[in-house]
Design goal:
Layout (H helix, E strand, L loop, with lengths): L1 E5 L7 H12 L3 E7 L18 E4 L8 E5 L3 H12 L6 E8 L11 H11 L4 E6 L8 H16 L7 E6 L9 E4 L4 E5 L2 E5 L5 E5 L2 E6 L14 H6 L2 E7 L6 H7 L8
Parallel strand pairs: 1-2, 1-5, 2-4, 5-6, 6-7, 8-13
Antiparallel strand pairs: 3-4, 7-13, 9-12, 10-11
Helix pairs in contact: 1-4, 2-3
Length: about 260
């Protein structure tokens, strides 16, 4: 398959090397266009007020991989690839493998998920891969699963246009409990900002925080309650696959608003 791969951890991140090289060795036509440095938690930001530069990179990936480093956001990278750098569109857009989870409401801020979402917006099925640890450095299990998933999609295309948000537990392949389709959970944090003082006595804040709890999404979202949430699946050592879309319309909200008096005075 023709694959476009991006990330938000940058061109030298081990996760994207593992993903791109594994898929290139498996025989896929792999192109990498990703940020030239870490651009985590940039969401779906685009660069509008300055030019975007992209430089071809050699001797970083497998010899068959074509690679560019871009000074824009993850979404910039995919958009630039699709509209300027590639001779023809890819069959699949991949993002990752991210160092750290993208679970629950974290996906709203994730540059990894946003890069994949940019492919989906352009009508290309996409997958975001994340390793759910900031310290575990072995990407072999996640890359191995990525190879299997891409092979399956090449043989049996996805039933609809969608983004698969894949999170992989930080354990060896032999300890993976299985693979499960999940729905998005909710993550709540504690101590979100660390207040500090610089050498000149000025106060500044460092965004931080730890997960306080993982909870079920509201019932009103009209999601099947018998499907596990992503955060629980990871806790039980399952690979989590959550199908996503870019349409954020609240279906139940439309139904309730139809009975709500919204008359112009």
């Amino acid at each position: 398959m023709r694959l476009l791969i991006s990330n938000d951890d940058g061109i030298y991140a081990p996760g994207i090397h593992s993903l791109a090289n594994t898929l290139a060795i498996a025989g896929h036509d792999v192109t990498v266009v990703c940020p030239d440095r870490e651009r985590s938690a940039t969401g779906h930001g685009l660069t509008l007020l300055q030019p975007i530069r992209a430089e071809m990179i050699e001797s970083v990936f497998h010899p068959t991989v074509k690679a560019w480093a871009c000074d824009g956001t993850p979404s910039d990278c995919v958009k630039l690839a699709l509209w300027a750098l590639l001779d023809r569109p890819p069959e699949l857009v991949l993002s990752g493998i991210n160092q750290g989870a993208n679970l629950g409401t974290e996906i709203l801020y994730s540059g990894t998920v946003s890069a994949a979402m940019e492919g989906l917006i352009e009508g290309i099925p996409s997958i975001a891969f994340s390793l759910t640890s900031h310290t575990y450095k072995n990407f072999e299990t996640a890359a191995q699963f990525a190879e299997l998933l891409v092979k399956r999609i090449s043989q049996q295309p996805l039933p609809e246009l969608m983004l698969l948000n894949v999170n992989v537990p930080p354990v060896p392949w032999s300890e993976i409990a299985g693979v499960v389709c999940t729905r998005q959970g909710v993550r709540r944090y504690v101590d979100v900002f660390d207040k500090r003082v610089d050498p000149r006595g000025k106060t500044y804040y460092w965004l931080t925080g730890e997960v306080l709890e993982d909870v079920e999404p509201p019932i009103g979202l009209n999601l099947p309650q018998n499907i596990p949430i992503d955060v629980v699946a990871i806790q039980e050592q399952y690979i989590s696959i959550t199908p996503l879309q870019y349409n954020l319309t609240y279906g139940n909200g439309l139904e309730k608003l139809s009975n709500y008096e919204l008359k112009f005075p």
